[in-house]
Design a protein that fits this description.
This protein is mainly α. The two termini are 13 Å apart. It is globular. α2 packs across α5. 47% of the residues are buried. The chain has a single domain, classed as Na+/H+ antiporter like fold. Helices cover 78% and strands 0% of the residues.
Length: 298
């Protein structure tokens, strides 16, 4: 019950976004603008501030990063083993494969902040920032032969990667943020979480006709993302000796639903956009009970 209470405010914002998209604010251009604002401006500001002002112990962060990479690779392998269940062609399977390991950073930041405050946001920011390039490499690498998007170009222009590098480099200079700049970044960061969750809700797509392939294959990918991957993270974290915020961050990171960026990449590279959108939406809604479970274990 405690885990559900932690999740309730954030998933209420997601459901509010879904309601607004279907009633009061139906314009596609409006929500497209909100997503761009969050992705390119507000969320990078939140990430930069978190990393520029926190003291992260490398002896803790590096094992956590290695564990995070191992967890994503485990999701990739689990999903690949389920390919015979999919009933999809190569491009369709490559599109949906992303949903087994890509992660929704907006939800991650919101819950990490609830659990551990500014330290939790900074740790989750470091984890997501470090894992975004690897997630892009895995996704674009599999889809590359079917599309026209270059791997290095995708990574070099990713705002989360740029914000992560900028925040870490600024942190290393030991130059303090001035009060006006810190206040500005705090306000933009606060807006990023709320608007990001509303945007997640506005993107929910659960029309049954868009699933395609076999239902068993879609169910396998959901099982992998929400249960098998976080269970693997739990075991790996214990084996490498992670504890406290680092361990919580690893398990929470692994338990996050699939990211909407998986849909964007699938569409840009000519893949199965509707099927990926359905999986992103399904994992987002089903993450309420599964995240409650993992939070109760933490």
């Amino acid at each position: 019950m405690h885990g559900l209470l932690i999740l309730l405010p954030d998933f209420s914002l997601i459901m509010l976004g879904a309601l607004l998209r279907r009633s009061l604010l139906e314009a596609e251009a409006f929500w497209g603008g909100v997503e761009k604002l969050v992705y390119f401006v507000l969320f990078p500001a939140l990430l930069f501030k978190a990393l520029a002002t926190v003291d992260i112990d490398a002896s803790v962060a590096l094992p956590m990063f290695a564990s995070g990479l191992a967890v994503m690779l485990a999701g990739f392998i689990y999903a690949w083993l389920g390919r015979p269940l999919m009933g999809l062609d190569s491009l369709g399977f490559a599109s949906r494969l992303q949903c087994a390991y890509r992660f929704n950073t907006y939800i991650g930041f919101a819950i990490a902040g609830k659990l551990h405050g500014a330290s939790g946001i900074a740790m989750m920011g470091a984890m997501c920032g470090a894992m975004v390039p690897f997630a892009n490499i895995m996704a674009v690498g599999v889809l590359a032969r079917h599309g026209q998007v270059g791997l290095l170009r995708e990574i070099a222009r990713n705002p989360l990667v740029l914000a992560t590098l900028s925040g870490v480099l600024f942190n290393l200079t030991d130059i303090p943020l001035t009060e006006p700049v810190e206040a500005f970044l705090k306000r933009t960061g606060d807006a990023a979480v709320a608007l990001g969750l509303l945007a997640v809700g506005s993107a929910l797509r659960l029309r049954l006709g868009s699933v395609g392939g076999r239902w068993l294959g879609a169910g396998w990918l959901i099982l992998v993302k929400l249960l098998l991957v976080p269970a693997t993270a739990f075991l790996i974290g214990r084996q490498v000796g992670l504890s406290g915020i680092a361990f919580d961050t690893l398990v929470l990171f692994a338990a996050l639903p699939a990211a909407s960026s998986a849909y964007i990449l699938a569409v840009r590279m000519g893949g199965d956009g509707p099927g990926v959108a359905w999986l992103v939406s399904a994992t987002t809604l089903l993450a309420v009970p599964t995240l409650s479970l993992w939070l109760s274990l933490l």
